Amino acid sequence: MLSENMLRLLRKLFRPRLRPMNVITINKKHILHNYDYLNSLQEPAVMFPVLKSNAYGHGLEQVVRILNKTDAEYLVVDSYPEYVIAKKYSSKPILLLGETLDENYKYFDLKRTTFCVYNVSTLEYLTDRGKEINIHIFINTGMNREGLDESQLQDFLDLLEKNPQVHVTGVMSHLHSADEVYYDQMDTQIQQFKKMYMEIINHGHTPLRRHIGNTAGIMKITDDFFNAYRPGIGLFGYNPLNSDDKAYVLGKKLKPAMTITSRVVGLHDIAPGEGVSYNHTRKTGESSRIAVIPFGYAEGLFRSASNRIVFKSGRKYFRQVGNICMNICMCQVDDGVSLGEEIEIVTADVNAKNTMYVLAQESGTIIYECLARLDKGIRREIE
Questions:
Q1: What class does CATH assign to 28-253?
Q2: Which of 156, 198, 266, 327 could bond 296 through an S-S bridge, CB–CB 3.0 to 4.6 Å?
């Protein structure tokens, strides 16, 4: 009689392998290149790649598999569901960035997990468990979001003193304006970090890691006080800095790792003056061929980008026309485009007209939001 595990394996092997209309393709070489390049900017510091929000939309499982080939000391995730995926597909230690409900901590593997702790109440719960636990103290140096305020630090350290089973293996904070041209706010945060860090040291703790820098911090910080960094957007190939920043040139070596493709599922030949999609926001001045693409704002496009972006088929660009719908958008094509043909929504080629940079600009938002909004149900494939 077959075991349940064998039955599951057989079902997986013989289930239909449907080819989806929409695919997000992840370039493994580009992610590994970005990791190595960012690491080279701050050697000998180590990198803690940040994989929150489904690895910035790239697919957490896929990116974890890729990063198994690196020397990353931690994989950084934000929540328990992300932790489960990272734990399943990698043997690397995990740094939990976000908070969770107290009753959920019992489900974590304490030997593999280090917790970012930034309030006394969470520490109280962890100490009550009476088990050996590793933490990174998250201090507030000016972001005023997560992090222990300086006024709260003494109570936190007093509680730690009574609980030697809790080991402080790192101290961390987060930069609030590292992507701005001027460095003074970043420098102020660094000085505040050092001040609070020394208070932690003076209480007898010997944390191995000190980290505050995101991708922009990696590109800008010259102080060798920090020995770890948390690359996020840069790991996936996007430059967080504006072109007028003196460090911008460093980001030009990053390589975007994502390509988004869809298919033509319908074609309409319309007469001059006819409109397209809801409210007919775009009317044609001549006879036109309209291609229907099953990719809308539910998949990750912004309705605000309607009539403002282009897609690519073969070597040609075609303008998206009409209001972007929930699961569909349209573009104006020529007679060379046929049903079933692949349409490139977003490219990894930074010199093209349909990059994630352009999509963010024409949507009136930032690349981070464009990536985080990508539907988790879209198949991610590694190339």
A1: alpha beta
A2: 327
Location of each CATH 3.20.20.10 domain in the chain: 28-253
Residue 355 DSSP symbol: B
Q: What angle do CA 226, 239, 84 make, to 5 degrees?
A: 70
Residue 62 has pLDDT above 80, yes or no: yes
Percent of the chain clearing pLDDT 90 (strictly above)? 92
Q: Taking the CB of residue 164, how many other CB atoms lie within 10 A of it?
A: 10
DSSP state of 244: T
Residue among 345, 319, 313 nearest 332 (CA): 319
Average pLDDT of the chain to the nearest whole number: 96
Strand partners, 228: 46
Whole-number Å distance between alpha carbons of 362 and 346: 13
Mean pLDDT of 144-161: 97
Closest CA to 30 of 257, 369, 367, 264: 257
Specify the pTM: 0.94
